[in-house]
Amino acid sequence: MPSRSRQILLAFVTLLTAAVLCPVNAAAQAVCPLDSLKPIKVSSLEAFKRIPVLDQGRIKPIDTLARNFLLQLSGRSRYQKETATEWFARFLFAPRTTFDDKVFLINNPELLEAINVEPEKKRRYSYHQLEPGYDKILELARVIDKIEDKDRSVVERELLRLFSNLRYYIDFSGAFAYGFPHPDFTLDSLEVRNLLDLSLERNQFSFYDLFEKTDQLAAASAVLRTKEQDQWNETELTLARLISALIFWTNHYANCPLGIIPTQEDLDEHWLSPMDIINLNANVPAYREEVELIRDMTVHYWNGEQVQFDISARAFMNSVNNRLTVKEHAAVDKIPLELAYNSLGLFLWAKLFYGLGLILVLISLLRSSRVITRLILVATFMGFIPHLIALVMRITILSRPPVSNLYETFIFVGLIGVALGLLLEYLNKDQLGTTVANLCGLVFLMIAGKFGSDGDTMQMLVAVLNSNFWLSTHVIAITTGYAGCCVAGVVGHIYILQLLTRQDKSRLEATMNNMLGILGFGLIMTFLGTALGGIWADQSWGRFWGWDPKENGALLIVLWCAIIFHARIGKMIHPLGVAVGCALGLIVVMWAWFGVNLLSVGLHSYGFTSGIANSLGAYVLAELVFLTVSVLILGKRNIKV
Amino acid sequence: MTFRQKLQRNKILKALASLKLTVLCLSLLFILTLWGTVGQVQNGLYLAQERFFHSFFFLAMGFLPFPGAQLVMWVLFVNLTAVALVRYAYTWNRIGILIIHGGLMLFLVSGYVTLHGAVESHLALGEGNAANYSTAFHSWDVAVWKDQETPATGKFVTDVTSVDIMAFKHDRPVVFEDQGITLRLLEYYRNCGAYTGGQTDITYRNASGIQRLEPRGLEKEPGENTPGAIFQAETTTGESFKLLLYGSDTAPTPIETKDGRYNLSLRLKHYPLPFTLKLVDFIMERHPGTDTARAYKSRVAIETNGAWREKVISMNNPLRYKNFTFYQSSYSIDKFNNETSILAVVHNAGQVLPYLATFITFAGLVIHFCMMASRSRKKHA
Questions:
Q1: pLDDT tens digits for A356-403?
Q2: Hey, are the CB atoms on B369 and A520 less than 8 Å from each other?
Q3: Residues of chain B numbered 109-168 and touching chain A (CB < 8 Å)
Q4: Residue B164 belongs to a domain
């Protein structure tokens, strides 16, 4: 027997099995109007965006997945006028319409040369632009994959990032393909349509239309086994083509990363894409219903049938909800909160008000008045409140302490910095506190924004971090300590500026007292954090102290504060020296905070882009120049370090 | 004149109690910590610890002697003691400062106790297996046992006589009296490669046929070093020969004495446990849909007076029993899906000290901070 027919026979047996498993659904189906290449689209995605998906170990609304997806690809959370969810819905339901969307961010011009793509002003490229270079990208990525991460050049890293983004895009793009009519399943022959009990009014069908007819297909193609391939007539050839197309599709669209239909296997939670569900087991009625509801959503999306679309989406969620475990239920229950978090954009509001506060501070330098001082305080509070609410929401959504990746530490340190500033303002009422608060809030949230721009900021934790009391206390204490030392450093700068602008003595003294108080607070919290870290290490690894880079970093802060305090008591440094020490303390904090990432050793690695390392270097340089110049100028006026 | 006033006149004590010395020590410690962190990139944690932190002196850039952290901490301890003797004003409003520095002294003491008193080892157990000894990470000893008493896996054979390899000195032979073997160390390498030599004139006795050891530089991870040693051996039969033992010998080397046949091997040190520990089950959980481990834990059982008590060891949740602590450290799964749990075993009498020191120092810091703050408020009011 020729090998091809053996293959088809094999396929046939598979289909026969599938046919036994699948009850027939002969109801007439609405179809996607493929003759227009543009879907009419539904106008509201309210129901769609709250569908739960399992992504990177966490159950989240599709809205969050959409934002992270677009952010990861393009570094932005919108595409032109569309929100992330609108774009993502178009991408899932009508992937072809996104092939010309410029969503792939490529920073490196050298990479563009390598794949022969003309540079664009906005540094973003469409799938159609990149597709011709895909083979080249794949070839290069395979080579680079063998190089150790730390030895990879900037171009190589960028290429790997692009490659994984392209893969991600391609893998997702077929998630709902089973519901669209496709040329693979075009049937001009009326006879075949009749044989398979398909609609006679149209000639274009989807994978799923055919998949539903597997037993008819099996019956009709029984004749293929009795004949040699060269004796097949037109109808039989069409049947064979359909079978091989079905098999090709099941393999081609397998392992899609969109986990949208929950399954239970060996008590493990697995959420699969519709296509993988079809592959796995389509005879579970709930699975089948959910696969069909997604197909219905696709069709209604294309036809712009809002009501039907929403009904299908809700029915889908209903069906999923009925099958969840208790743990999954708890996660799904938090989806409304997460949607609120996503849509409120609280950090943006916080940044705006902190920025406004800073502008008011600058105005007050020119022309001070009570009204402006009041307004500054109001702006600080208006920034602080959304900042705090956002943090609390994150804690609730993730059910864990708010500091477990670099992004979160910036948010948290910023918040503590603002709180300390407000405390200073409450104690002294001299505008020093609000100045510090707005500066800390704005700067830290901006930095956090940089770190948040490469995908999900709500990741799950690895085993060693996934614990209890000690993690929360240790990390919170140490980051509070960072915040204290940072605020002391900012006040140190203000003190130096006050010296330079010849402020009066009582004002200087007040600033100095505040600086010492905050530095003391920073020392206490860093010490506590360091020691709690030791206790945590003792609990999990059996040693209190092991000179690990992260431990050393925390110790450096403690030592630095201790040196400042002792040198001051021993009259080895003057007030200016204390201020300079606090300012330099900022660099020590930076080292402790991400020095580990720069060194890329030790247990903690959060991922660190070289761009950020460069700006850190620039900051250190600028700081050193500022301090040297200030000390030289003040030295001429006989003010000693 | 009180005794304290007499002390305060002592120039040496006065110099030792100086704040300048404190600041110098803190600065040195700052530099060492930073340097030791950066040094880890090239040499790994273990070697950096040895060089910068556990040492009294080390050579910077190969020629410049630089004080190591151990020396600096000793000086800090002396400095603190001298300050306590001659400089502190023991008054109520200094109580915070006193408590802080008391706590810090306790930290230094606990560091000393841990450095010299704590023993770390590990225990790799397959599911269903039990053991009553643990194995060192990287300390080696020479073990001697009678031939017929082959140690069964997972069982500590008490008839094994072992001597720490560090106890062997070139000029002082070690005598295994009961076995009638005397070993004098000729050469020892902490890390070396082993080679089989020519077939004809065998000079070293070694069961694996190793005839040559070639020293290598130390590995970043101390556990990856394989030591080798050459001894001059004499037995009660009057025989004298050169014995070569290598850390990864495939078989122990037998020696005949009047008593009979003995096996010798250079092996990772074994530490007997005063009880037996059994791995009942190893459990690993992943975050759904990913390969990231959410948690892994071992259900173990310990034998207490003939009865077995079960306990789950997980991350941050060790088993403490009879001054021993067992931590979930790692695991391995072989190609037949056999799970092995690796537990770290720590025996540290001073384990509670850093907890105490943390509490005392933190309390002192808080007290001092509050007192300073309220004083500053009063001054301004």
A1: 999 999 999 888 888 999 999 999 999 999 999 999 999 898 887 788
A2: yes
A3: 110-111, 114, 118, 120
A4: yes
- The answer to whether residues B7 and B109 belong to one domain is yes
In a shared domain, residues B164 and B110: no
Q: How confident is the model at residue A607 (pLDDT cuts 50, 70, 90)?
A: very low
Chain A touched by B40 (CB under 8 Å)? yes
The answer for residues whose C-beta is within 8 angstroms of residue A514's C-beta and 6 or more apart is A424, A427, A428, A432, A433, A491
Q: Decide if B316 is inside a domain.
A: no
In total, how many domains does chain B have? 2
Residue ending a domain, among B241, B265, B289, is B265
Contact check, Cβ <8 Å, B369/A464: no
Burial of A632 (0-12, 13-18, 19+ CB in 10 A): exposed
What are the tens digits of pLDDT across the range A175-210?
Answer: 898 888 888 888 888 888 888 888 888 888 889 888
Interface of B with A in 334-353 (CB under 8 A): 344-346, 351
pTM: 0.82
Please judge whether A513 and B376 are an interchain contact, meaning their C-beta atoms are less than 8 angstroms apart.
yes
Q: Check B48 against A544: CB less than 8 A apart.
A: no
Min Cα–Cα distance to chain B from A562, Å:
8
**Which residue in chain A is spatially nearest to B23 when comparing CA positions?**
A563
B234 lies in which domain range? 156-265
Q: d(Cα A261, Cα A397) in Å, to the nearest integer?
A: 21
Q: Is B261 in the same domain as B166?
A: yes
Domain-located, residue B173: yes
Q: Assess whether B160 and B103 both reside in one domain.
A: no
- Does the CB of B26 have a partner CB in chain A at under 8 Å? yes
Q: Do B8 and B101 sit in the same domain of this protein? A: yes
Q: What is the pLDDT of residues B299-357, one digit of tens each?
A: 999 887 778 888 898 877 888 888 788 888 888 888 887 888 888 888 888 888 999 99
Kindly determine whether residue B288 and residue A462, on different chains, have CB atoms separated by under 8 Å.
Answer: no
**Residue B152 scores a pLDDT above 60:** no
Asked if A561 contacts A522 with a C-beta cutoff of 8 angstroms, the reply is yes
B257 and B189 assigned to the same domain = yes
Task: Give me the helices (H) in chain B, please.
Answer: 3-9, 11-16, 19-48, 69-82, 95-117, 353-380
Q: For A214, phi and psi rounded to 5 degrees?
A: -60, -35
Answer yes or no: do B74 and B174 share one domain. no
